[in-house]
């Protein structure tokens, strides 16, 4: 007796190993935002308890008072004006820092002699806080936009420089040797080999420079600027309007967080081959 033929099994669609489906990605995204909102809710609850225990709104206002101050400052545009001024200064400072640090970093990374000459000066200046230069910078530049930009350029210069040097020095020598064997010129070697290989480290340096510069902008604007988030904090402190002081402090944190998210996105776009290993 002939056995009955079994129906052929329908092959399952194959997915690349390690590539989650769209539904999984959406689930992970919702879980991440749930964790973020839960952490924020716990922070607000602890803040409210601390404010109630303190009982002095001039020292520690309640989250509701700060939220009301945020609404007032946002409705008249003052909040956005100061945030725009500080952010524009930060962008200018980062551009200047990159323009100075990245070429110098490639030069030091490719030339041991250049590193031997420049590195001692860098290591001598790097431990000096940017805040330490405020009195001298105030005397030279005066009150205005130049002083906070100078402080942020100084603070952001070193992370970009050191990460660029490290990125160039960590390039596989086999890549450079293969490029030399193919007889490519120096310009092609720079644009086709050195820059793509060192780019992940450079982008990490830019993120670190942003964090350091954004932290320094408050101190720089407290003393040497007639506008910006740091100036607004000191101004409302003198007026004993603590809720508005806290409102601007929260804006500093929010803008910094959103800018870092943007830099992470840029990092994934520029260096997709480092996905999963980038700086968290």
The biggest beta sheet is recorded as: none
Alpha carbon gap, first and last residue: 67 Å
Integer-rounded radius of gyration:
26 Å
- Unreliable segments (pLDDT under 50, ≥5 consecutive)? 9-20
Q: How many DSSP-defined strands?
A: 0
H-E order: HHHHHHHHHH
* Count of runs of 4 or more consecutive helical residues: 10
Gross morphology is: globular
Q: Bin the helical content.
A: over 70%
Instruction: Note the beta-strand portion.
Output: under 5%
Describe this protein's structure.
The chain has 280 residues and is mostly helical. Helices cover 76% and strands 0% of the residues. It contains 10 helices and no strands. The chain has helices spanning 22-54, 63-75, 78-110, 112-125, 134-141, 146-169, 173-182, 186-224, 229-238, 242-270. The termini are far apart. The model is unreliable at 9-20 (pLDDT under 50).
């Amino acid at each position: 007796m002939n056995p009955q033929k079994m129906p052929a099994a329908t092959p399952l669609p194959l997915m690349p190993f390690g590539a989650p489906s769209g539904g999984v990605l959406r689930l992970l995204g919702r879980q991440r935002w749930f964790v973020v909102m839960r952490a924020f809710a716990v922070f607000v609850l602890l803040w409210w308890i601390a404010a109630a225990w303190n009982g002095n709104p001039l020292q520690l206002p309640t989250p509701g008072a700060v939220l009301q101050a945020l609404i007032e400052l946002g409705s008249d545009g003052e909040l956005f004006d100061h945030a725009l001024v500080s952010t524009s200064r930060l962008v200018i400072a980062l551009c200047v820092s990159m323009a100075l640090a990245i070429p110098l970093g490639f030069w030091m990374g490719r030339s041991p002699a250049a590193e031997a000459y420049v590195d001692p000066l860098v290591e001598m200046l790097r431990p000096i806080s940017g805040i330490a230069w405020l009195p001298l910078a105030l005397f030279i530049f005066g009150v205005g936009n130049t002083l906070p930009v100078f402080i942020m350029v100084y603070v952001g210069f070193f992370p970009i420089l050191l990460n660029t040097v490290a990125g160039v020095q960590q390039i596989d020598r086999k890549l450079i040797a293969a490029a030399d064997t193919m007889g490519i010129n120096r310009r092609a070697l720079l644009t086709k080999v050195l820059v793509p290989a060192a780019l992940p480290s450079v982008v990490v340096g830019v993120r670190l420079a942003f964090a350091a510069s954004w932290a320094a902008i408050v101190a720089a604007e407290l003393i040497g600027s007639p506008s910006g988030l740091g100036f607004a904090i000191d101004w409302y402190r003198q007026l004993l309007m603590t809720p508005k002081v806290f409102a601007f402090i929260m804006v500093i944190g929010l803008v910094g967080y959103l800018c870092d998210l943007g830099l992470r996105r840029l990092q994934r776009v520029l260096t997709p081959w480092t996905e999963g290993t980038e700086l968290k």
